[in-house]
Design goal:
The complex is a heterodimer of chains A (163) and B (580). By secondary structure, chain A is an alpha+beta fold. Chain A contains 4 helices and 9 strands; from the N terminus they run βαββαββαββαββ. In chain A, the strands form 2 sheets. In chain A, strands 5, 6, 7, 8 and 9 form a 5-stranded antiparallel beta sheet that branches. In chain A, strands 2-3-1-4 form a 4-stranded antiparallel beta sheet, with helices on one face. In chain A, β6 and β7 form a beta hairpin. The longest helix of chain A has 13 residues. Chain B is built from 24 helices and 20 strands. In chain B, the strands form 4 sheets. A 6-stranded parallel beta sheet of chain B has the order 3-2-4-5-7-6, sandwiched between helices. The chains are: A alpha+beta (163), B alpha/beta (580). Chains A and B meet through α1 and α2 of A and loops of B. The complex binds thiamine diphosphate and magnesium ion (MG).
Chain lengths: 163, 580
């Protein structure tokens, strides 16, 4: 099972390596990881996407909680939430395909953030399925470069999934 | 008034009640050592290797229950501590290690004697720190001692750049420690504890499995009360020895790979297993899917990550073992009309039968010293009152099997990491912590050579430590595996030809050296060693090199798939082959 785990940590040097070291040292897998300061500059939030059966994920959350610099761990599996990630895609379509690419970007509410003589760079945000659908559709036009941020997630107000 | 970083450090140690520090100097810690030169309240004990310093701090902590402290220099001094820190981490020993570091300006430059010790020790410390500002020093030290000694204890390292100890700042001792990411659960959930009491009341064949957590939380008394009240037989892990009296009728001794027949058999037949301060290490469980197959499992531990890590658990109780056991006893007493003795009679009888069937024994020999015999004689001569440290290998297992530990903090052995070279420096730490106790290191001829340089430390400090070398001329435990599982191909385990004369080595350092080569010499030699009060003694017991540790559960087998001495001799090696 795939889990999105949000980890509130002290914003200190070395914390990222404590967290990533925990995953590598125990053979857990990180699919994506994104880190940023919170409103309080003394803390950061890491959003980690990982896979494992229930027992593994339970160990991961417990081990994370055990790190001194970790303040709070939330496994979004149990919580109704919104997930987003962002990607920048540089495509170099043939001349005759350029309009099609622009249309595609528009359908997906992408933004052209750079355009050159032979390329467009499209900014695209969304949840996983949207991202994947867009990537599949844009691929045939020729992707030159591709970067994505990794997921961030936030709980919805007041609604808890009953398990 | 401003103080130097080094002075602040010493003030903090005093505030923490530290009396002994084990250490080794070097360039970047000169400021600290300079303060220690005039210091009256804190004694620095110079070991002869930084690994020795950390093991000594560890032994000090295990014997006393206080935090052990070591101070070393940067680079090689710091990297030499890694084994000791990893050892303390695996066995949850509270120690604080101070390492010197190159000046903050130079960090990352591959400066002379720079090592990223915070990075290196990250996975084997409970927490670690690099102090970049002298004004953070006292807060950091306060936190470090707090983290090391609370919750599930463990090692904490503080890296101190030279400019921090040389710099000056205000000494402010924080009265309180508050770390928002660190709040160990010490009180068990009341509902869970009541459940546990119910399960115990209903069980017909319960077994308590007690581990190092009992000792760390000072819960020997509470454990005894619970076991005796509900008439539950107790087995201990290697780390738990002494957590319950080994001479009690309810004790089944150690379980696991070299556990007793009756302890392993009882666990496999139990309908309820109560794990107290244990983490179900693979040396204890054997093949996990065949472990305690008929039992419901209750696990009581302060560390949530230890629960359900290796085996299924039906009822977890997260909390400090001492608190939980107190509550559990209360809950059990509240259960009305429970006939604790009556429901247990059959089970306890069965266990007595198993004890009679296959007691822990060995074959005594008139002509050659059996290592087990040596341990028995040490037990008799010290009336079970000594602090026994061990090295690793057969010596360790025999010391676990044939010495009976009635009290906590009298058994110091490297359980999780299995560190050869632990016992002797640990004995030094233990002797500093308990100057009035007899301290033995039960050693192997291989292991003792891993930290033999600490003879100098023991001699110069006039420590009357007895090092009983069970000298079999081999890396015996490895040789045992080669005999049983590798067709007797003794690849690189023979030591005898290269071994020194241990008596002469001892004497060269100014220690005493004694030797026994015949069984009748064993007791006199031990008695002789007990008379020596002002220096360490090496007791070189030339023992039967063929002797093996039994019973044995081969790696990957269920813990009741034990092999015994007789079976091997009778040619019943089928089991062995099947497992290999
Ligand atoms: C530092 C270290 N290196 C290697 C080992 C692997 N090992 C486990 S027991 C053992 C043999 C120990 O020999 P000795 O000290 O003579 O003890 P004996 O088994 O003969 O009693 C070895 C090499 C270890 N535990 N620790
Ligand atoms: Mg040996």
């Amino acid at each position: 099972m795939r889990h999105t785990i949000s980890v509130l940590v002290e914003n200190k040097f070395g914390v990222l390596s404590r967290v990533s070291g925990l995953f590598s040292g125990r053979g857990y897998n990180i699919e994506s990881l994104s880190v940023g300061e919170t409103i309080d500059p003394a803390t950061s939030i890491m959003t980690i996407v990982t896979t494992g059966d229930d027992q593994v994920v339970e160990q991961i959350t417990k081990q994370l909680n055990k790190l001194i610099d970790v303040i709070k761990v939330v496994d979004f599996m149990e919580i109704d939430h919104v997930e987003r990630e962002m990607a920048l895609v540089k495509v170099s379509p043939r001349k005759e395909d350029r309009t099609q690419v622009l249309q595609l970007a528009e359908i997906f509410r992408g933004r052209i953030v750079d355009s050159g003589p032979t390329t467009y760079t499209i900014e695209i945000t969304g949840n996983e399925s949207k991202m994947n659908a867009f990537i599949e559709l844009i691929k045939p036009f020729g992707i030159k470069e591709f970067v994505r941020t990794g997921k961030v997630a936030i709980g919805r107000e007041g609604i808890r999934k009953t398990k | 008034m401003k103080k130097s970083g080094a002075e602040i450090l010493i003030e903090c140690l005093k505030k923490e009640g530290v009396k002994h520090v084990f250490g080794y100097p070097g360039g970047v810690v000169l400021n600290i050592f300079d303060i220690l030169y005039d210091e009256k309240d804190i004694e620095l004990i110079l070991t002869r290797h930084e690994q020795g310093a950390v093991h000594a701090a560890d032994g000090y902590a295990r014997a006393s229950g206080k935090v052990g402290v070591a101070i070393v220099t940067s680079g090689p001094g710091a990297t030499n501590t890694v084994t000791g820190i990893a050892n303390a981490s695996m066995d949850s020993t509270p120690i604080v290690v101070f390492s010197g570091q190159v000046p903050t300006m130079l960090i990352g430059n591959d400066a002379f004697q720079e090592a990223d010790i915070v990075g290196i020790t990250r996975p084997c410390t409970k927490h670690n720190y690099l102090v970049k500002d002298v004004n953070d020093l006292s807060k950091t030290i306060r936190e470090a001692f707090h983290i090391a000694s609370t919750g599930r204890p463990g090692p904490v390292l503080i890296d101190l750049p030279k400019d921090v100890t040389a710099g000056s700042g205000e000494f402010i001792w924080p009265e309180e420690v508050k770390i928002r990411g660190y709040n160990p659960t010490v009180h068990g959930n009341k509902y869970m504890i009541n459940q546990a009491a119910q399960m115990i009341a209903q069980a017909k064949k319960p077994v308590i499995m007690a581990g190092g957590g009992v000792i760390l939380s000072e819960a020997a008394k509470e454990l005894r009360e619970v076991a005796e009240f509900a008439k539950i037989p107790v087995t201990m892990t290697l780390m738990g020895l002494g957590g319950f009296p080994g001479t009690s009728k309810l004790s089944m001794g150690m379980l696991g790979m070299h556990g007793t027949y009756y302890a392993n058999t009882a666990v496999q037949n139990a309908d309820l297993l109560i794990g107290i301060g244990v983490r179900f290490d693979d040396r204890v469980t054997g093949r996990t899917n065949a472990f305690a197959p008929n039992a419901k499992i209750i696990q009581i531990d302060i560390d949530p990550t230890s629960i359900k890590k290796n085996v299924r658990v039906d009822l977890p109780v997260v909390g400090d073992v001492k608190n939980v056991l107190k509550e559990l006893l209360k809950s059990m007493k509240e259960l009305k009309d429970q006939q604790w003795s009556a429901v247990r009679t059959a089970w306890l009888k069965q266990i007595e039968k198993w004890k009679d069937e296959r007691p822990l024994t060995y074959k005594h020999d008139k002509n050659i010293i059996k290592p087990e015999f040596v341990v028995e004689k040490i037990y008799e001569a010290t009336r079970g009152e000594a602090i026994i440290c061990t090295e690793v290998g057969q010596n360790q297992m025999w010391a676990a099997q044939f010495y009976k530990y009635d009290h906590p903090r009298r058994w110091l052995s490297s359980g999780g990491l299995g560190t050869m070279g632990y016992g002797f420096p640990a004995a030094i730490g233990a002797q500093f912590a308990c100057p009035d106790k007899i301290v033995f290191d039960i050693a192997g001829d291989g292991s003792i050579q891993m930290n033999i340089q600490e003879l100098a430390t023991a001699v110069i400090n006039k420590l009357p430590i007895k090092v009983a070398i069970l000298n079999n001329g081999y890396l015996g435990m490895v040789r045992q595996w080669q005999e049983l599982f590798f067709k007797e191909r003794y690849s690189h385990t023979h030591l005898d030809a290269g071994n020194p004369d241990f008596v002469k080595v001892a004497e060269a350092y100014g220690a005493a050296g004694l030797r026994a080569t015949k069984p009748e010499e064993v007791e006199p030699v031990i008695k002789e060693s007990l008379k020596i009060k002002n220096r360490p003694v090496f007791l070189d017991f030339v023992v039967d090199w063929k002797e093996k540790v039994y019973p044995m559960v081969p790696a990957g087998a269920a813990i009741d798939e034990m092999i015994f001495d007789e079976e091997k001799e009778a040619g019943k090696e089928k089991k062995l082959k099947a497992v290999k």
